[in-house]
UniProtKB/TrEMBL annotation, chain B:
Belongs to the binding-protein-dependent transport system permease family. LivHM subfamily. This is Branched-chain amino acid ABC transporter permease. It comes from Paradevosia tibetensis. Keywords: Amino-acid transport, Cell membrane, Membrane, Transmembrane, Transmembrane helix, Transport. The keyword Transport applies.
Amino acid sequence: MKLRLAAIAAGLAFIVMSAGGASAAAVCGEGTGQAATGEPIVIGAITGKTGPDDFSNSTRAAKAYFDCLNANGGIHGRPVQYMVEDDQWNPEIAAQLAAKLVDDQKAVLMVGNSSFVECGANADFYKKSGITVVAGVGVPRECFFASAIAPTNAGPRVSMLGAMGYALDQLGAKSVVCIGPNIPNVGSWSCDGVMLLAKEKGFPASTILIDQGSADSTSVMLQAASSNPDVIVLGMSKGSAVPLLVAAEEQGLNEKIKFVSAASAYDLSVPETIGPGWDGRFYVNMEFNDLEATTPDNQNWLAVMDEYGQKSDPRDTFAQAGYLAARIAEKALMSIDPANITRETAGKAVADIKAFESDIFCAPWYFGADQPRHNANSTTRMAVSEGGKWKVVSDCAPSPDPELADIRAFEKSAGITQ
Amino acid sequence: MNFLPFIISGLGIGAVYALSGVGLLVLFRATGVLNFAFGAIGAVGAHVAWQLMEWDYPLALAILAAVLVSTLVSFLYGRFLAPLLSYRDTVVRAVGTLALALFLIALMGVVWGELPRRLQFPTDQMYLTLFGVRLTFTRIIALVLAIVVVGGITVLLGTTRLGLDMRALANDRDLSAILGVRITRTETAAWIITGIFAGLGGLLLADLVRLQGTFLTFLVIPAIAAAILGQLRSLWVTAFAGLGIGVAEALLTPIDWISPYRSATPFVIALIAVMILGSTAQAALKDR
Amino acid sequence: MTAQNQTLARPMASPSAIRVPREVLVIPVVMAVFTAAVALLANSFWLTAATSAVALSLSVTGLAILYGQLGLVSLCQFALVGVGGWVTLRIGHAWHPPFEVSMLSGGIVAALVGLIFGIPALRLRGLYLALVTLMLAGGFQTIIGAWGFPDGGPGFLGRADGAGRAMLSRPDLAQDSVPYFVYVSIVATIGLVISQWHKLARPGRAWALIRKGEHVAIASGVNVLTYKAWAFALSGFLAGIAGALLAGNVGQLDGRAFTAFESLNLFALAVVGGVYNWYGALIAGLLLRAVPALLTDLGIDGYVTIGIFGVALFQALATAPAGIAGQISGLIARLTRKGQKP
């Protein structure tokens, strides 16, 4: 699908209207430049910071945006009180923190959530509490099959199938091996998608699920290579993907087999870490726009991070996700009466969003009111590792995930065009 | 199913287990303390080496710095902190090293974070090809280091005065003191030796596995299986057991139904060994 | 150990007396006060933290029996908590019996597994035993990581595929947070009382003899095998119940939270809390869940928390052999005996 110029134009117009200027200054809220002083609106977030990986860049970016918003008039004069908690990758703690934010702090929305464990731990609690979650980054299946949670990212399965689609169309793949983590609802979920697609299209595919705690990457690579696939698709986080790629390079597999990966391995540090042996050989799926894109909203994201974030906050896709989640929340909250912002009104406002446009997204985001699950971001791009950086190599394309059938049907019936 | 390539890849992971297992046991033979922090101490050194290489210092300096830092950490703990626990039972003294490991994890997490990094040595590019599998020189160096250290420590413990003092210390601290063994000096020497080994081992492990603080620290847990097979006594058996466990784990890869569980191989082998070897195990272990 | 001698050296009431020993009575009283204080004062966040802490204190009690009474180190106790949790969830989702039934099944299966784990231990001691149990914990870590915990799906593993994930329902009496906390406290109190009774009655004396030396015990007519096995079974049972209570707290458990390191951590904090007094288990539970919650609440970075724990662990090991509970009991002894030699 071609890049939607209308989306860019709309985004541009939105920004021009609210900024009144096209400089590199950060633009948020009403752009008044006056600090908001009304009664704070409490918004909560849970992120997995301490543990196998650090997902907190999403909430950091959201915080930067909310700080910018508060410095520019807030939500019709009311500032956002953004409370972020670290669940330390422990579902028990995630549940404690959800209780804290929802029951004790009386949050009206959860925005920018980015935790591996909290969707599963808290989805039911959020539903019962009637609170809506505009998550930044969702990973396990529970984040994409919960009625109260709508992530801004595409998800590991959709992303992996986006990569798979590219491999089929552009890399001439005729056989594939899928390597995923043996975490239920992540690895098997993603690789099942590949197997399903392979069955539909009629090419051989096999799956290898591995323990991310395993120290032996070489054996996995040998096993994957033993069936002589054209493409190996990875669904691992960057911490596990890098050792696998290192082991593959050690065995010379980078020269024989094409490697593609879901967006979980898309991080700015990866090309430099894996080195020149992978130039032009490792493709990764991107759930959002290129981090250095010069398009207006992307530039605004960078400007917000520069002016209101910390210098040390990584400007990565998690940050893009958090920024988008914060902007979606802002749009929803701006549309309601500031004197009547409650969990119900805020949730309804978010649910009513049918076309949130940003050039960071490939296609407009929507919530999907009354739907049992939310997965609006299902259009992705691809990049390749080149000279220590990522180089974008494709336009936006919808992910060929067969499981998206219900989503596509809803989009059609609701008149949402992607 | 072709198993031959997996024997070679098994030697690769086996080298990792052998290094860590011997690292755990070396200190145990010399002081009676099982060193849970072996991986952590090595990891700190590896991070220092990585940082220096990022700043474009030469490789030799980075390696030297890594070993120095690891040795320093080990010396500080062994000289000043470990003696505080010397009158507790062996498990509590091992838990003390666990406290050190936690502290080092925190240090690495705060300074370097959990971003995956790659530690590369020139020996990664050189390799032997056996059964279609490349065995890099780094892996061979790891194997050789494990063997050399085992040989060296065995010679040290068996023929030198210091070694004799160490064995006495490990056996019974109070009796050794009465007999005139200089406890502090012997212990400190043991911790320094283990620190040097941890530094070298840490560099190799960071290259072979991944440079990530928590991961390298908890690599000692499967390595304990090798130590158990050596019955906490024999360094040679530990080293070869480590290799064997690695090969066994790798050989399970092509077997589909068991492959997702194969990282449990060290644990299963250790338990089977315990069942077979039974209670003859800890004859040399005096429990205080 | 002075603290240990205190618990053993008190003269037992004669067998015909129906008076319950003071050491046992004090448990429900103290727990009642503690429960009331938390239930009335804590907000949601602290309530869930306290619920976890009390549940885990049960598993520490099991550890304390093995280590404090018999000198046997078990580094797989958290794995047994996981076993209990797994069975509770599986049975709960499959047949929806009353929570108590699922909980007891979890406890019983964990007791059986604890017994099986105990088989290699029957002839091992000290560090070697500890490492063997750590291997068991490692094996469990791999299996539970691959299986995950049951959440309402079909088959033996009981995994649902994303949609239709069920949460374990809490006991009928205690659906909300505060009642559930009180429920957990009551169950924990019962467990603590059972454990304390064991220490004061015949099993405790048998264990003390076994600890002194197995030959001594055999010569005194103690059936070493039975009592050791009983200790493992009881320890496993308490861990299983703890797992069931944790499962009920959140409604689910995550396979990645049951690593071998958690068992190591549990043992370390059990030693810090104190294994010779019943309240050492409660202190350990609070250290495991409440103190990290406090540090998180204060906004301290996760890694710094780990560092603080490492330092505190070492400090506690070096300066308080009987743990924090030992120091408290020493203080109480000094205050109550007023000048008499301990």
